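Open question from group meeting: does this chain pack into something compact, or does most of it stay loose? Before anyone orders reagents, we agreed to write out a predicted structure and look at it together. Recording both the input and the output here so the notebook holds the full record.
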Amino acid sequence: MLKNAALETQFILLGSRRNLDNENKERFAEIARQKLDWSKVYSSAILWGLLPPLYRNLIEVKSLVPSQFLKPFSLAYQQNLVRNLQLSTELIRLLHLLQQEEITAVPFKGPALAYYLYQDIALRRAACDLDIFVTRENVARVLEIVQANGYTLYQDHQGLSHEHYLQFKSHYILLGADRKPALEIHWDIAPGYFTSHFNFPQKIKNITTINYQQETLAYLNPADLMQCLCIHLARHLQKSLVWIKDIADLADQFDAADWSPFLQRCKKEQCQRVVLLGLGLSDHFFAPHLPDSVRKALKADNQVQKLVQRHARGLLETNSSQKMSSWKYALTYSREMFALQDSVKAKIDLATGRLLEMLTTSRLISTP
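Structure tokens returned:
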């Protein structure tokens, strides 16, 4: 954990961990006895998406929390639970609609991930949307189904050919009506050029199942889920600590024997550096139980170490990306995505693919 960070930051990060041992429970209570800025604790926990897991540990030391601050924490926790229940209801409705058409759909993040990690949807921050994976060949049919059931394609997609969108993008965004959440229909976790050797169509064929809300849902197996979470994080750095916590909590559930073959597979699929960045950031903030093989790989990659330190600082700042001009942020983002590629070929694929995407989305090569 960040020993040199403000006490409020240490309190949030420690209190957000899934399981506190006796030593960390004592440390958590010790920090609570200090003169904390409870308004800052509350606002930062909200900003970082960590209030739900923090509240679970906060009630264990509630006698040390001023009563006027405990109530807002409790209210936010209950509101988050209600939101997750609403998302769950809509998710099940959508999955039933697709099941009726014999379409396999796999939820990602959101309440399904909360249940997968904690068996309690209250312990993860409610998302503003739902994410569902389907196979590429089913995308057009899925769009028809959901648009006939209360969703509208986001306007930025209009005017782009479906073929180009499938080629250069990874998901469609749809807006819900009547207070429904937004919906993202994915056929990949990232554009193909970003992880050119990550065979997502094969991942969706290797699904497992989870029992959720008295339903049996298709879900990614732990190794594929870990890769997807790390790739998603790498594409959206500087957004939220909750995604890093997802990786930490999934890492704690990995069997020790699974780590070596997992790293070997990541290396073969040329996404090892992206995965190591996610694991490195999770270790920096939440200290999951990582085996020696992972720590050795992290230590051996200087590029990953630099990126972990750089983003660890930025993630604790408010709106850090907005402090840059838009062009400078875009340049920095592109440079770091380039650095995350495992091979020269992957770097070339990223550069050429990104250029083609820019041309396509600017409609220079779009078709009617």
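Observations to bring back to the group:
The mean pLDDT is 85.
Strands lie at 106-108, 129-133, 151-153, 171-176, 182-186, 208-212, 215-219.
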